[in-house]
Every structure is written in C-alpha cells, then in structure tokens.
Amino acid sequence: MNIALIGNPNCGKTTLFNALTGLDQHVGNFPGVTVEKKTGSVRGAEGWFAVDLPGAYSLAAFSAEEKISEEYMLYGAPDVVLNILDATALQRGLYLTVQLLELGLPVVVALNMMDEAEKMGIKINAQLLEKYLQVPVKPICANSGEGIDELVASLKNVGKQAGKKSFQYPAYSGKTGEAAREILSMILQNKTSGSFNRLFFALRMLQGDKPAVPVLKLPPEEMKQIERITSAMEQALKVDRQLAVVQMRYAYIDEICRKACRYTKRESGVKWQFDSLATGKLLAFPLFILIMFGVFWFTFGPVGGRVSQMAEQGVAYLSAQLAILLQNWQLAPWLCSFICDGLLSGVGSVLAFLPTVLILFLLLGILEDSGYMARVAFILDRPMRAFGLSGRSAVPLLMGFGCTVPAVLSTRTLASERDRKITTLLVPFMSCSAKLPIYAVFAAAFFQGNKVLVAAPLYLGGILIGLLYALVFKNNSLRAKEPPFVLELPAYRFPSTKNLMHSLRRRAMDFLKKAFTVILLASATVWFLQHFDFAFTYLQDASQSMLAALGKKAAPLFAPLGFGDWRAATALLTGLAAKESVISTLNILTQGAGPRVVFTSASACAFLTFTMFYMPCAAAASTIRKTLGKSGSAALAMLAQTGIAWLLAYFVYKIALVLL
Amino acid sequence: MTLDKLKRGEWGEVLQVKGEGMTRLRMLEMGIVPGTEIQLRKAAPLGDPIEIGLRGYVLTIRRNDARLIDIRRRMR
Predict the structure, then answer these.
(1) Given CB atoms, is B15 within the 8 Å cutoff of chain A?
(2) How far is B55 from chain A (nearest CA, A)?
(3) Residue of chain A minimizing CA distance to B19
(4) CB A264: neighbour CB atoms within 10 A?
(5) How far is A191 from A242, CA to CA, in rounded Å?
C-alpha cells in the first residue's frame, strides 16, 4: 500500500514523513526527474509505504517540483492520499484538497499546526471540516508526534476500503458547477476517456487548459459542444473561464471555512518582531552579511577548528594503533602498505573532516528551518535581478556551500526553466564543503594554519566569478518571459531539534558511505596504480608506477600553472570521484608528507584556485546533467568551468610569483 | 488603482486580476481573486518585491505583477 503525502510547501510535510517512517527507517532517494520522491516504510504498519512528494499549491503545476506531485496524483494511482493542511493558511491549503477530491482520490486530511493557528485567533472545528469535506480530518502536531497514531489508524481504514467505497465530488454550485457537471457527463459517455472520467478533468476542459486536450481525446463535435457550454457560462457569469473555475473553488472553500472556523482577530498574518529587522530598509543587508559571516566563522573559526583538530588527532591515533596491530600480525609488506598507506591514510584524511562538514550543514539547516532563507530570497530578489537571477535562486546558491547535489536538486522549486538552468550553472561556483579538507590541509602546510586567509578569498572569488558568469547568460537565448515571483513567507519557527538531527544523521551517513565506498575505492585504486608498473610488478619507488606514467601524461597541462608534478595532476583527477580525494591522494602519494613536497607557496595558491573552480565531482556533474536536460550542454558547462579554472589559476600563479 | 499603489499597512479589495496564462492562474490560485482583501505589509529593502497579506498568510510578489491586480482601497 502506498500513502502519498501531499500539501503546500512549508506545511510540515517532511516532519510528518519523518514521524510516520521513524528515524531508523531506510530512506531512499530515487533519482530520475519524474520520480524524485522519498519513500519509507511506515512504522507499525507492515507493508505500508509513505511517499514524500514535493510541496505544491495546486495540481496545475508551476514549477518542475510541483510537476512531480501533479503527475503522481494524476497518474501514479496512490492507494491513499495523505493531504497535510497548515491550519494557519487553511483556505489556500484547501485549494489543493478540493482538487484531490475532484479526482476522486481516497483522501485523509491531517490538520497540522493547530496550536499556531489558535495563537493567531483561528479556531478550526475538525469534526465540522470532516463533515463538509466528507473525508477523515485528523488534527495532528507533526513536531511532537501528537495525533499520529489516530492518523495512521485512519489511513489504514481508508486504505482497506480503497476502490470499494464510492467517492463524492465537492458539491460545487452555480453556473460553473453546472457547466462542469455537463462536461463530465459528456466525458463519462465517451468510451475513449478511460481513467480521465473525473470532475477534475472536466474542470480542466472548462478552464481551457491546453494539456487536458491531448489526454482527453474527444471527437470534434464534443469539443465544439464543450466550447458552447463554456461560452454560455462566461456570458452568464460575466467572467472568463480561468477565473470562473478558481472563483468557484474558492467560493466553495470560503463557505466551508465560514461554517467550520471562527476568526477572533481580523489581522492578516501574525506580526513578527524580528522581521522588521531582517527585512527592514536599514539592517536587512548588514544582518544578512553578519549571519553568513557567522556561519563561516563558526565553521572555520575557533569552534569548528577545535572540533576538526580533535577529529584529526582521533583519526591519526586510530590509524597508528591499527598500524601497530598489523605489524604484530607480520603481514606481507605489500599488504601492510596497502592497508596503511592506501586505505587508512586515504579514508582517514577525509574522515577527519566529518565534524566540520556537519557543523556547516547544521547551520545552513537552522537558517532554512527557521524561515530566514525565505527572507533572504525576499531581500535579495532585486539585487539578484541585476544578474538576471531571481531571489529564489539565493537558496540553492547558499545550499551550494554545503553540497552541490542537494543544491542543484533544490533548483526545482524555481518556477522558470531559465532560472533553474542558470542557477544550476552557478551552484558549482559556491565552494562546496567537500573542498574544506583541501583548504585546511593547504592552510596548515603553507599559511601557518590560517584557514580564514585561505578560505575567504576562495569563497568570495567563487561568488564573484559566479556572478560574472551569470551576466553572460543574462541577455542570451536562455532569456524567456519572466514568470511571476510568488513566494510564500512562512512564519518564523524555532527549528525543531528532531528534524535537524534527522537531516544531520542522514548527512553523516552519506558522508561515511562516501568515505567507505567512493573514497575507499579511489584510495585503493590510487595505491594499486602507484605501487605497480605496467608489468604488474610490485614497486618501492612510485615514480616508475602506472600512476606516475598516467600523471606524467597530464602533468604538462598544469606546468604553466606551477604544478607540473604528476602527483598534483593525479590528485586532481581522483578529485573527480569526490573532491575530498584530492587530499587523500596527495597524502598517499607523498607518503603522508603533505603538499609541501609537491608545491611551492605560489603553486599552492594556483592549485587551490584550480580546485575551487574546476568541474565538480561525478555525483554533482550527473545531477547537473539531469537538470540541464541535454547532456551536451552539461558537458559544455563542465568544460567551461575547467577552462575558467585553468585561466584563473594561471593568473593567480603569475601574481603569486611576484608577491610571495 | 493597482495593488502596488497601496501604502504600507493599507488594505484593498481585489477587483480584477489581469495578465494571462499560467502567471495569472497562479496568482488566482494563491487566493488573489476578486473580492479578496489584501494588505500591503511592506516592501523589500530595495523597494521591490512587496510583501502582501491575505486570507491570513503572507506572500511576496514583484511590483510588476502587483500592477496587474486592480483594487479598491478599503478602510479597516
């Protein structure tokens, strides 16, 4: 049995999903543009799966993300639909609900955030709502888990009856409702309409929605008949068809709310004290800069620095202990070297950065969950438009500092194709957290451990070059009609520790999985290529190895940048598997001596610049390819980025030679 | 008058939503239909976009789009 979770963005859907599936559930991310949805098995309900769909305001999808939800509702045949409503914005949430009912889907409504609504002076009677909607309505608190058991019981109940029980359409009145029912009866009489015999599709035809026409293959006479019905309705109501349908739904919703809700205050939305600061004329930008500065200070400064130092020492201690243990076992020297110099030093050098990466993700998560990110989009919309972007692009870009993959995925919330593509192209210019270890190791080797001195120019440089890059696309063919910027500003909420921990846990698991799969494999491969020649004889001297031969082929490309050493070229190559590999590879190839053996101060600067800008890792590249569509344009983007990286590194090297 | 002409804190009643296609549909579906009361809550630091309140929730829209919404000022 599949339970599809659907609701407006920000209604607490993911929190409810987590509450339903539990912390220890396996949560899989199924890739592929049409099926980008999370699935998890429901706690205490054998054989029941919850499907977390992206937030949507309507089944007339506007963004790529909404399209996923729309298609799942229309063609995915869910066994039960769990519709989550935010009690503080009930009417807008019900707009989606009535569309689900028009589709005749087996719906259970979860009424979330009742406590917040009551604070705003809205009192909702769930029983009355249930009576008028004619589907179960369960008040819950997704954060505390209150009401979840009753909800699951209700879902099971509806699921068992699914298909057997007849459904009831919303009782739309007036001319629009009559016209819709007239069209529906035509559809029902037509044998070719198949599973499209629902009120929802009749309304789509009435509304004049183009996509509805090809799916509903009606003969021309019937199409003409529909047109006659529609024009008659327009004349009688004196409004156009688009407005007529929306207005009918809202009239129906308003009527239900009048009966089931009591409003004690006539304010529009709560007042937020903090908001006058966060979006005020004077302090909005200084505050934004301060917050971003705080995030990076926390990650790189004394706090994050101390944590990563401790982790480094821990990892070093553990691998030293393991090495002693292995020596006691008196293994063959090559095996000992494989485990210690290959696997341990490779994986270990990366593992030490897990805490730093988690700190960064935690802080970005707090910004997102608290509702501040939406304000960032609000205040940055105007300045971003100067670069041909929209304020909404700010969120994926900020997330890019964490990891390119989720950042690129989150561009799906953008309404226009153009914004989506350009933002996707820009995300890799935001230095991802996997590059942190590289900066840290080089800072320790060349800049007295001053991470800020290393990281700040790289981060800022990335943003600057990214914005310049955006200007290239501002006036080109990607430009299309600007979509409206309709953005919801959610109430400020205190981020729930449970949710933050849940996503941190997932991040940590992803990181560990990467360390013990991709990076382990890369380390093993590097070690193998480094210790054997083409005749597969075991070598002591790595300079005769296969790896050296390969690296030496690539090295001349980097000679003008000051690092024509084969080890640098090899490190960059393995960085394509995962950026952390740059450091693990360098560590293996220099037998733990670090980058000083390979680089001068000037060439280190050039190398850092190159690593900041060159093409992202394979995982990010494949996500970018999915978003950009045609694989050709993604390949071009990767090539362009690497070209930019080479040029910048060249200039940095020349300048550094003079200065250092 | 149009929605963007309201002053901070003022209310208006929607008379008509202009524009076309998906853009108009989305504005309508977000609850901006004739008869709805809307408050202009504030503008972004650089004057655009604006923050509006309706039906108990808060949205932001750009001035360009707000110009498509005909309203009548309402005293509350």
Answers:
(1) no
(2) 7
(3) A484
(4) 10
(5) 27
User: In this complex, do A279 and B17 lie within 8 Å of one another by their Cβ atoms?
Assistant: no
Q: How far is CA B64 from CA A319, B11, B30, B41, B61, in A?
A: 61, 19, 17, 17, 8
Q: Which residue has the tokens 């979509």?
A: A483
Summary mean pLDDT of chain A: 85
pLDDT at A413 over 80: no
**How much is the pLDDT for A271?**
56
Q: What are the boundaries of each domain within chain B?
A: 3-74
Distance CA B60, CA A591 (A): 56
Beta-bridge partner residues of A49: A2, A41
Task: Work out the number of other CB atoms within 10 angstroms of the CB of residue A24.
Answer: 8
- A266 phi and psi, to 5 degrees? -110, 30
% of chain A with per-residue pLDDT over 90: 34
Mean pLDDT throughout A526-540?
83
β A487-488/B57-61 pair status? antiparallel
| In the predicted structure, residue A232 carries a pLDDT above the cut 50 | yes
Global ipTM: 0.95
Task: Return the pLDDT at A608.
Answer: 96
Grouping H, G, I as helix, E, B as strand and the rest as coil, residue A272 is coil
Domains of chain A, first to last:
2-161 (3.40.50.300), 174-263 (1.10.287.1770), 288-659 (no CATH)
- pLDDT at residue B76 greater than cutoff 80: no
Q: How many contiguous H segments (helices) and E segments (strands) does chain A have?
A: 31, 10
Query: Contact A587/A596 with Cβ under 8 angstroms?
Result: no
pLDDT digits (tens, 9 = 90+) for A2-42: 899 999 988 888 888 888 887 544 444 333 333 356 778 88
Q: Is B34 on the interface with A (CB under 8 A)?
A: yes
Of A60, A92, A391, nearest to B57 by CB-CB distance is A92
Q: pLDDT band for position A443 (50/70/90)?
A: very high
- In whole angstroms, what is the distance from residue A183 CA to residue A200 CA? 11
Which chain B residues are Cβ-neighbours of A282 within 8 angstroms?
45
Q: In what order do the strands lie in the sheet with B37-43?
A: A487-488, B57-61, B50-54, B37-43, B11-17, B69-74
Enumerate the residues of chain A whose CB falls inside 8 A of the CB of residue B61. 484-487
Query: What's the pLDDT at A213?
Result: 67
At residue A101, the pLDDT reads 96
Contact assessment for residue A473 and residue A387, using Cβ atoms and an 8 Å cutoff: no
Helix, strand, or coil here: A304?
A: helix
Q: Per CATH, which fold does B3-74 belong to?
A: SH3 type barrels. (2.30.30)
B27 touches chain A (CB under 8 A): yes
Q: Flag whether pLDDT at A550 surpasses 60.
A: yes
